């Protein structure tokens, strides 16, 4: 009989895949035992959770074929790479000839993603970045500027060694004719960007880019991946009024113990764009169908699929009934404190009734605010979304009802901050059981827990094609490195 290979502990410490939510949403007793380290990171900031880490982490054994941690490089080699990066930075900071201007679109979280890539593109081109212009959102009519949402001076200061950020074009370039590009292909490489823009940028001095969403490749050299995370999780700090109010709300939620944050995608435009139905009544379904007929260009899901096919494929947001059943199956206690983020649900408060009846401690920013606190942000959808982001990021447990920019960014932010609990609903596999009325509740709960053993926020090695700001392991969290980009 062949000897079994010795088991090797992973370098990654992760949340337990089967701890019920009941254990995560009760005030814990203090423990004198030290928390296990998280050795994959250079220096993980402490989790904002009040839960002891020993309740949240176990050792994960990785399949060495699918997940191979990058081996630690020779310290001399790492120092050499850092020296090369710093030397390139000095040259860029002294260059006053090239400037990159960008116009970013969409909601706040979509804009964040484009700003991240704008910084990286500026680094690739060796250009100074003019503070990004936020395009007025056609749905919400938000006219906020960069400094209304983000702390501009903090942004400049954190990136001072990577990219020079300027508030406006210098007088020497105001009369320049910018090289404007509106249709950059999807997922382009640094080499493509240099070959396409560098010669003209050197000649004209100004490059203007629009529509940056998913234009830059997700698979970049390591220094650029690290820069992506630096921008997303460190440089893009919210403006002081937003940050202060978001932290106040988080403190109010935490004042009576741990809390769960939900990002609910139940707005009217979400149902129209995804080709899905809210599950409220025939009357509401008709309204969504008619809206989709009037504006077929809004449908972003696969147009050749029926609603039922989309639902079973996991392409639809969970409605309130489904979110409630999922939380109960994962053993969330009835007295759990829940913060929900998102816009006004289609159908109003009645759309949330299944959740509010099961979990009475159910809050959002309107419930938590004191008179006048939200007035400065009236009709500023991006600022309100930023407040939601802060409260969700600081929660003990976070779960989105649907994928999207905010869910992915918070997923990465919570991983970067110490692998804080993040529940990814396994919609594709669990939906058939939601539709099976003959299944006993106990069996349904057992199946749902089993399906989510690997979907509870365990550190996940980034695979090719995935965004490093959603999956920061290992590029943004390891000392090791294997390459840097050509400058």
From TrEMBL:
Coiled coil: none annotated. The keyword Transferase applies. GO terms for cellular component: cytoplasm; membrane. Transmembrane segments: none annotated. It is found in: Membrane. One of its GO terms (biological process) is fucose metabolic process. It is a single-pass type II membrane protein. GO terms for molecular function: glycosyltransferase activity. Keywords: Carbohydrate metabolism, Fucose metabolism, Glycoprotein, Glycosyltransferase, Membrane, Signal-anchor, Transferase, Transmembrane, Transmembrane helix. Pathway: Glycan metabolism. CDD domains: O-FucT_plant. The keyword Membrane applies. Belongs to the glycosyltransferase GT106 family. This is O-fucosyltransferase family protein.
